[in-house]
Automatic annotation (TrEMBL):
This is Peptidoglycan hydrolase-like protein with peptidoglycan-binding domain. Coiled coil: none annotated. It comes from Xanthobacter flavus. It holds the Pfam family PG_binding_1. PANTHER family: L,D-TRANSPEPTIDASE HI_1667-RELATED (PTHR41533), L,D-TRANSPEPTIDASE YCBB-RELATED (PTHR41533:SF1). It comes from the Bacteria. Residues 22-59, 83-122 form the Peptidoglycan binding-like domain.
Amino acid sequence: MALLKRGLAGEPVKILQAKLGVTADGQFGPATETALKAYQTQHGLAADGIAGPDTFTALGLPELVLLTVGTKGEAVKKLQTALGIPADGAFGPATAKAVKEFQEKNGLDADGMAGPDTLAKIPAFAGVFSPEAVAKSQAAPGTISTDAKPAEAGATAAPKKSIWQTITSFFS
């Protein structure tokens, strides 16, 4: 899953920190977690200190939204409804299959993950996922770390050229 939580580092963390108004050093530590929990509480989100698609959307950071197997929440439910499949809010194999089919039909990289490039093509997400958000979701050349990993253990690898490929752990 594309989540940000304590112990992770990378460009998505810097983006989150800048939006939260904390030092944007790219390392998700206690100050970032505290600021995130405060934001989540103030905006009626689950105040767990973990940033996922619903938090990114509330923050106005669509470039960080990446829905993949294991992701849960309102963004997934909205995606499922738009794809015409049962909307339980949990991104599982059936959702991945529907996303992959949508991507194939729309000339996208058919990886079964719904990031800004895929969501921008779905009318239900119109206006949120602009060409600018899609561009921001791409990693700049040379920023993808050789030791990058998915944001959650056991998660599917981030799409090619995704900003999520910059995520590493900074705690050993």
